[in-house]
Design brief:
423 residues; mainly alpha
Length: 423
């Protein structure tokens, strides 16, 4: 008998066995109690060969099938505690299959942290990757296995996942390939996960991202557009779709995505930073300025939008507009000290660019209750490091516990090029 013929016979035998186990799983929902019991017994005795068929049915719509499948898996996989050195640590995973997913993840993290270098613990984590019924738990276990970096563990997990017919196993294979830097292998695995479960949106996301990382912009763009069409419109998907459109020369369409994103929920403060970045990448500085101005008016306490409006105005050459926006940003930044110092420095540079710095300095210096932080920043920007250093020293003396002021003092002293140190 040739080797090829022997392999072919083995494959046929496995296929026949798989068909038999699938039939037995169906029998778990038979109207007859005797048939159900017999099927459960035969499946239990057939493990581990029957595991793929059992795991494929863990979410079967038939409650009876689902209950019996999980019962068999619990008995076959999770009754024996791992033989780790500390019995108390082993107790963390007692009755593992009866714990909810959140608790399983917490227990696995604790278990892994307390069993570094112990082979039986690594084997248990690998078993979780291969056989747990929850995708998030399996991913957590995979991350823990990879973090341990034990010899042969990645290869063993890869083989176990290859024997699993579920979409989550294919998805985990993609995650494993990504960890090894194999982008093509990851893309193929995520495509297989989608083939196994058309509704696997997580794999669709992963595939779109991996294709982009591989420079396959047209394919990635198609995948991101599919996600958009399915109602997935969060920042990750929008950013990916916009990046692909830009790479493919569809700049106007990329900008349109971000305009629509803001228009959909103009009162959602979290949407604006990503939209600014997207519009800026598309070269739409005028739209950034308009959107930042609108956000500055809409969110009266947000300094970042005033600063964004200033940056956009300066990039377009509107120096007076930039100075006004940075002045508003400074006004909205009473604290913390580090942020206030940065806002003052930006405002000072904007005033110099707009040609209003010297007049503002005289105005502040003449005032009895002038803003000392603004004045010190303006003096330093104008090149009067000696006056700036002296002013920052007084600010530090008035507020000795604030490290940000001491940093500004050190910067002014350095510019002054004086041997005077920071006290």
């Amino acid at each position: 008998m040739t080797r090829a013929f022997a392999v072919a016979l083995a494959v046929l035998a496995l296929a026949a066995g798989a068909d038999e186990y699938d039939e037995l799983v169906l029998d778990l929902g038979d109207p007859s109690w005797n048939v159900r019991e017999a099927a459960e017994t035969r499946l239990r005795e057939a493990c581990p060969a029957a595991l793929p068929a059992l795991k494929a049915a863990v979410d079967d719509p038939d409650h009876e099938v689902r209950w019996r499948v999980r019962k068999v898996l619990r008995a076959v996989l999770w009754t024996q505690l791992p033989a780790v050195a500390d019995p108390d640590v082993a107790e963390l995973v007692r009755e593992y299959a009866d714990l909810d997913a959140v608790t399983r993840i917490a227990r696995l993290r604790d278990f892994a942290a307390r069993t570094q270098g112990e082979g039986p613990a690594g084997a248990f984590l690998e078993k979780v990757v291969a056989h747990d019924v929850d995708r998030k738990v399996r991913r957590e276990a995979l991350d823990l296995v990879l973090a341990r970096n034990e010899a042969g563990s990645a290869e063993r997990v890869e083989r176990a996942l290859a024997a699993d017919r579920s979409a989550s196993a294919a998805w985990l294979s993609g995650r494993l390939a990504l960890a090894g830097g194999d982008l093509d292998g990851a893309a193929a695995a995520f495509e297989e996960a989608i083939r196994r479960s058309d509704g696997d949106q997580e794999s669709r996301r992963e595939l779109a991202v991996v294709l982009a990382e591989s420079g396959r912009w047209a394919e990635s763009g198609r995948r991101f557009e599919e996600l958009l069409a399915a109602g997935e419109s969060d920042v990750e998907v929008l950013s990916g779709a916009a990046e692909c459109r830009l790479r493919l020369g569809r700049t106007d369409e990329a900008a349109a995505l971000w305009r629509a994103y803001l228009a959909e929920r103009p009162d959602d403060v979290a949407r604006y930073p990503a939209a600014f970045d997207g519009l800026r990448a598309a070269g739409r500085l005028d739209e950034v300025a308009v959107a930042a101005g609108a956000a500055m008016r809409r969110f009266a306490s947000e300094a970042r939008f005033a600063a964004e409006a200033g940056i956009a105005a300066a990039a377009m050459g509107d120096l007076a507009g930039a100075a006004g926006a940075f002045e508003e940003a400074y006004r909205r930044t009473p604290a913390p000290a580090g942020a206030r110092a940065l806002a003052a420095a930006r405002l000072a540079r904007a005033r110099i660019a707009a040609g209003t710095a010297e007049a503002r300095r005289r105005e502040l210096a003449a005032g009895a209750s002038a803003d000392q932080v603004e004045l010190a920043s303006l003096e330093l920007a104008l090149g009067d490091a000696e006056s700036a250093a002296s002013r920052w020293r007084r600010i530090c003396e008035a507020d000795p516990g604030e490290e940000a002021w001491r940093t500004e003092l050190a910067r002014a002293v350095g510019r002054w090029n004086s041997p005077e140190g920071v006290g």
